[in-house]
Amino acid sequence: MAHTASRDAADAIVEVRALHRHYGAVRAVDGVDLEIARGEMFGLIGHNGAGKTTLFRMLLGLVAPSAGEIAIDGVSVTGDGFRALRRRLGYLPENVVFYDNLTGLETLRFFARLKRAETRTCLPLLERVGLAHAAGRRIREYSKGMRQRLGLAQALLGEPRLLFLDEPTSGLDPAGIRDFYAMLRELQATGVTIVLTSHVLAEIQQRVDRLAIMAAGRVRAVGTVASLRAARQLPAVITVEAAAGARERLRAALAGLPVTVHEGGATALAIECRPDLRLHVLGVLAGMADAVGDFTLQEATLEDVLFAADGGPL
Amino acid sequence: MSFDFAALATIAGKEFWDRIRSLWVLAIALLFTVFALAIAYFGGAQQGAVGFRSMELTIASLVSLVIYLIPLIALLLGFDAIVGERERGSLDLLLSLPITRSELLLGKYAGLAGALAFSTIAGFGLVAVVLSTRVSLAGLAAYAGFMASSLLLGCAFLSVAVLISVFAADRTRASGLAIAVWFFFVLLFDLLLLGLLVVGGGQAGGSALPFLLLLNPADVFRVINMHALEEVGALYGLATVFPPQLADAALLYGVLVGWCVVPLGVAAWRFRR
Fold it and tell me: Taking the C-alpha atoms of A220, A221, A222 and A224 in order, what is their torsion angle to the nearest 10 degrees?
């Protein structure tokens, strides 16, 4: 790839600049700038209609932008180099539906021929996603989870360097999800860049390196989960079960701090504090350990980050 | 942008083998064989004669059957070519591969046309083999013309079907549209022309009428086969109403080829946008 600049762009495999896609008056994607680094696992989250599917389809060259630019590995997705580029891409659409009348192996061979990948890699790929036993069965007999695995095998044809996975774990059971991410980590270790969407935020937040939150056609926030939490200053909640008769003492001790205290039940206190004050609050509690029966610390989840990004200005 | 014939062939191959495996090709071929043999041997039963009479009369009867059947078969074969993939959700996947929209569309058409051609040639060809010992060379030539024009008729309506499959929003609408197209070209069109003729008192529209027939591939198919058969041509009195410039077989075949190419071209243009 010919890169003119030596700055970060050399490490960005996906570069999106001022991207728009309008359908009449609807601004499905309304000015998105995004860089995804080579080798990272990147999550794209947002509610239905946030624009992530449209963004995904533009990244794949399935929909032309109304305005703006997309470069993948420094190349335009719809330009002359699109064939060479697409051989290095893997795509798993949401709710993938294959041809009912073909077997798993036939399906994979069909896509391998279109992708100019070696058809003899098909069986090993089926083994890799745990479908070797069903290679000769027709897809109409496949369960949702099996179809999803077949979809992943299809995306891995031709050893792609960049994977786009749209809701890849839908239909998988918890064990399947664990195996799935284990496989993604193996791929990532070999230098593959992975871009995935998910609405199961709890699942994605432990696994991606960085993520972008989309709402109303715009990227509202990009970063690591920790940096997003910190930037939002979303409160952590420390719930304290006070020892008998000690609740008022605790309240008094917390009175000087910039925290919000709610009473819960007969003896509990819920202390909402900024993330950077957590240690301080815990220090106060530790200093009066005789007053504390028990406590829990609850961090803001990605869901809270998402709703915060969705609801108000940044 | 370059054109990748290998990609087209992969798409076409899948469509073709799908129809072979689902026994669609076999069923249609059998249908053609049975109808053709029945008409050849029992076509004259109403006149009290059972048995093979002549190739010309057989073709004449076959034409009036095939003119309903083949457009319907072709429309049903192709109406969901694109909209079906779209509805299934596999279209995005196909288009994310190193293949252009034109290659996908033309590959679909080629594969489906191949299946239709295979059925037509096998189905009617078998009948030709059965009858070959009892028919003159001229009769066989006329029958070959009938097969070739049947094939083109099928390809023309398949082209229209693929056009429908690109424009239609969903499969249900596509199937409705396909039936409507069949109804229009096969049943309504001639009635409209007849109405035009009557309203015009047989004068105004009279000279333009034969040219209007060129707008309907089914009519072109009929004219091709009626003209090839002198005996039948006389029967229909065609020679008296038909301007000589339209009796040119090359022109008529050319029009059918146009009906294969133009709707497909519009479909490809639309699909690329």
Answer: -150
What residue of A is the nearest CA neighbor of B6?
Answer: A114
DSSP 8-class letter at A103: B
Instruction: Give the nearest partner residue to A91 out of B6, B11, B93, using CB atoms.
Output: B93
Q: Which of A75, A97, A98, A114 to mutate to test the interface with B (most CBs of B within 10 A)?
A: A114
Q: Do B96 and A87 touch (CB under 8 A)?
A: no
CATH number of A1-88+161-223: 3.40.50.300
* Cα B201 → chain centroid: 32
Q: What is the 3-state secondary structure (H, E, C) of A86-97?
A: HHCEEEECCCCC
Hey, how many other C-beta atoms are within 10 angstroms of the C-beta on A250?
Answer: 21
Q: Which residue of B has its CA nearest to A151?
A: B93
Question: What is the model's pLDDT at position A4?
Answer: 39
pLDDT at B16: 97
Q: Domain ranges in chain A?
A: 1-88+161-223, 99-160, 232-300
Give this complex's ipTM.
0.88
Given this model, what pLDDT does residue A7 score? Answer: 41
List the single best residue of B97, B101, B102, B273 to mutate versus A (max A Cβ within 10 A).
B97
| Regions of chain A where pLDDT drops below 70 | 1-10, 302, 305-314
Residues in B closer than 8 angstroms to A100, CB to CB, are none
Whose CA is closest to A13, among A272, A195, A282, A155?
Answer: A195
At A23, is the secondary structure helix, strand, or coil? strand
Q: Is A97's CB within 8 Å of B89's CB? A: yes
What's residue B201's pLDDT? 66
Tens digits of residue pLDDT in A240-290: 888 888 888 888 888 888 888 888 888 888 888 888 888 888 888 888 888
Name which CATH class applies to A232-300. alpha beta
Tell me what the mean pLDDT of segment B90-114 comes to: 95
Joined tokens for residue B234: 């006389």
CB B66 within 8 A of CB B72: no
pLDDT of residue A314: 39
Contact B69, B258 (CB under 8 A): no
Is the CB of A63 inside 8 Å of chain B's CB atoms? Answer: no
In chain B, residues 17-36 whose CB comes closer than 8 Å to chain A: 18, 21-22
**pLDDT at residue B103 in the model:** 95
Q: Are A129 and A150 in contact (CB under 8 A)?
A: yes
